[in-house]
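thread: overnight batch results

M.L. [08:02]
morning all. the overnight job finished for the chain we discussed friday. pasting input first so we're all looking at the same thing
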Amino acid sequence: MRARIAELETQHAALETEHATLRSEHSTLRSEHSTLRSEHTRLQSRCATLHSQVLLLRKMLFGRKSERRIDEVRAEPNPQQGWLWAAEAAARVEESCEETGAEGEVSAEAGDPTRRKPKRRKKFPEHLPRFRSVFTIPEEERQCCGEAMAEIGTEVRRELERLEVSYVHEILRKKYACRHCQEGVRIAPGPPAVIEKGLLGAGFLAHVLSERFGNHQPYHRQEKKYAAEGLDLSRAVLCQSSLRCAELLEPIWKQVADEVRASPVIHTDETPVDLQESSTGGCRKARVWVYRDLEGRTVFDFTETRSRDGPGTFLAGYRGYVQADAASTFDLLYGPGKATEVGCWAHARRYFVRAQDSDAELSGQAIDQIRVLFRIEREAKALPPEERRRLRQERAVPRLEAFRAWLDMVQMQVLPKSPMGRAIQYCVNHWEALTRYVEDGRLSIDNNAAERALRAVAVGRKNWMVVGNPRGGRAAAILYSLVMTCKEIGVDPAEYFRDVLVRLSHCSDVRLLTPHGWKEHFAPRLKERRDRILARLREASVVERAAAAHA
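M.L. [08:03]
and the structure it wrote out:
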């Protein structure tokens, strides 16, 4: 009996040991299961992130670039009614055939609903000169029935033509001397040279600058264009001439920069450019910054890095509104006694657009709500600042509050690192800056003004590819600033450069030479003088034609 009890106790101890082992294995398996679930969640999130990046890259390479969505869906034609017009037309043709006894057949073809009706040809501008060429039939061929044919009218065709002409401007300055003392020599004054001992005059320099920085034509293409015209101008001459012009125009750039810093609102952004390290070496990333005020003054600045020193130096001590994206490079500008941050809803919407491939439903709901805010802005655009602020308070603020509540609700339903989660997190983190535009009617809902200004650099760098050196980057920033400011206020950059490069030698007030100052003080006088000269030329042409007709 005792042996049996000992045997059972031994078996019980063995079972307890096995149970303890199984419990330990179970605990280990639970721990491994928890670890595997955590790893599975991490990999799932990583997979979703990579998938969204692949979709985004495919869209960037092959997809539609515009973020605009189609509000209305085009109605499909009713299949029961789409060919009623053809049946009616065929019936009329058959009736005509029966009446006349003719034979025929009909066919119909579906039209292309995407084709638009052709627009009427626009009238030619009245300010352009007219060149008329008259073609006649030789007199010996104007015979019919033994008599000369009578002129009964003229068939006229008008078309636009263009002819660019380069010419040599010879500037002759008469010299005078006294025949008695043979010492006093006087020379007639003349227009100063823009570049001392330079080959190019103000008009040609203006053409080079406007082509390079306004129309994105790099110097090597201009060199080939001029060579086709028989002009031996190397790209080195064009580049050095532009650098010298930028040095002459730098005081004007500084004045425009001071006027921008005096504005209560500044839009800013940045874009990368490739800076060549040496003639044979590689490139590194530099930055072009843009600063724009409410009146169209646009200033570009060049820095060799993306550090905060760029905006920190340019906007040092500024205390107005700075509208930008949420890049950390602008953070040092904001705070007590500093500038006030204003966010960009176009930038926030872009995050939801990128999340459409991974979460079409929620991203679509977010985009629809943001679209309502932009619709309100389209109505407020034509209003004065105070009325614009009042409209935003009445209509935009309730929409913003509803959108914030929706963001807080949806944020619990998505993965934090998913494209949708990042889009929501961006809005939540920068909500104060994004909603600040409703406080002041001078503020904008987005930062598109700065992004449009940077488009000139973005388009140009596809042509000129790299910036040769920091001096060239600085010169490009100066010339881009003046070109874009001219375009913003409706001034022809070539005409502006042509006049200002000459005035620099005798006009000491740079406030008058900025694009805004030049448009106000000098442009009307130039137009009046040009109109007066054209009137004299037309009058002389009329007199010459009358004299020739009389003769």
